[in-house]
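Field notebook, page 427. I keep forgetting to write these up properly, so this time I am using the form the group agreed on. The chain and the ligand, pyridoxal-5'-phosphate, are recorded exactly as supplied. Prediction of the bound pose follows.
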Amino acid sequence: METIDDPYLRHLFDGDSVFNVYNEEATNLSVGAPGPDLLQHCVEMIKKATDHRLDEEKKEGKYYLFQYGITAGLWECREELAKFLTRRYGDPVKREDLILTCGASHGLQLLLNTVISPNGIIFVEEVTYMIALDAFKQFPLMKIVTVPMKNDVVDLDAFEKIVVEEKENSNFVTNEQKIFWAMFYTIPTFHNPTGTTLPPESCKRLVEIARKSSIVITCDDVYNLLFYGDGFPPHRLFSYDNPTDSNYEGGNIVSNGSFSKIFSPALRFGWIECSSRIAKIFRSSGILRSGGAVNHYVSGVVTSLLQLSIQDNYLDKLIHIYKERLTVLCNILDHYLPQCSSYQRPEGGYFVWIHLPPGINGSEFIKWCQEKYKVTAIPGVQFSYAGKSHNFLRLSIGFHRKEIIRSAAKTLCEALLDYIRRKTDCK
Ligand SMILES: Cc1ncc(COP(=O)(O)O)c(C=O)c1O
C-alpha cells in the first residue's frame, strides 16, 4: 500500500530549502507573509480583543458567539468592517455588500464553486499569484486561459480580443446561481508578483469589458491597504463598477479581501465585497447556511479588534515598517542592480519584480545564487501558467527586517552581476 510521507514539521516553511525563511545560512526573500518580529504583536492584540468580546457576550447573556452564525457572517463584524474599510480606502463600503470568509483563498474557492459555470473559463495574467493557479487546477472542467501583460499590467487590447474569441467558441452551463460563463482573476492593486497597480483609465476600461462580455472580475485585494504613499490607497476596481452608470449590469466586479497581510495569516479571516445580485447567491448557499457563517467566533474577536481601534493602530504601524523596508530594498536596487536589469518601484504591497536580461534564466540563477551567495528569491516562471517569464525574479519585503533585506538585496545584486558577466557581455 502507498504510504504518505509525513515528516515532523513545526512550520509550513521549515521543510523546503527554497521557502525555509528560518534557515540562517541563507536569506530567503521569497515569502509573502509577516515574520515573527511583526507576529509577536498579535499576542497582546488578540488577548485584548478576546477579553473584550467575551465580556460583551457575558453582558448580553445569549452567548450567540458560540452558536451557529448568520449566513453572510456576523452582523456587527460586517458593520465594523464596512466602517474600517470606508475610512481606510477613503471610499464608501456598505455592510450589506460584505460576505465574511476564511481569507482570500477561501473567497476564491467560494466564487469558483458558487457563481461560475462549472465548464467556464478562468482568465489569468501571464504572471499571477502562483497558488491561485493551483486552486484553479482543482476545477478541471474549467479552462484556464492566459492573457498577455504590457509594462507589467494586463494588456487590455489583447484581453478584449481573447474574451470575444473564447465566448464564441464554447458552450457554457449557466443557471440562476452560476451566472457567469467566465472569470478574470487579477490583482489590480500592488500585484503579486509584479508590484504594479492598474492605472485609473485601465480600471475604467476593464469594467467596461467585464460588463460588455458578462464576465466577473475577481480582484485579490489582499495588499490594497498596504499603501506607502500619502493619502488614500489607489481606488479598488470594485469602486469603478458604479451602479449609477447607464450601462451598469448588476455588478461584474468582486473584491476579495483578507486580514492575512494586515494582521495575521493564521486568523483565517477575510471578506468578499460584491453587488447585491452576487451577495444574494452567497446568502442562499447551502454550504454557508449549513455551517452558519464560516468563522463566526473569529468574526467576534475581529469585531473587537475593530471596535477598540487595535486594527487601525496596528495597520498604521505595519505601513510604517513596510514602507521603510521597501525604501531600503529599492535604494539598494537603484544603486547595485546591474544595468541591463530593471524594476519599477511599487507604491505598496510586498513585492518587487526584477526584469533580468533576456538570456538569463531566473531559475538557474536562483539555484546558483542560493548555493554560492546564500540568498534566494522566486524565479518568474513559477508565476506563469504558460511556463514563460523565465527572465524575472520576485523579491518580497514581507518577512524580514530591513537590516536583513538591505544586506540580502546587496548580495543578490552582486551575485546577479557576477552571473550576468559569466553569461553575457552586460556590465
Ligand atoms: C494575491 C494573493 N491572494 C491571496 C493570498 C492568500 O490570502 P489568504 O491568506 O487571505 O487566503 C495571497 C498570499 O500570499 C496572495 O498573495
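OBSERVATIONS:
- Residues 260 and 268 are 7 Å apart (CA to CA).
- The chain is about 40% helix and 15% strand.
FOLLOW-UP: compare against the apo run.
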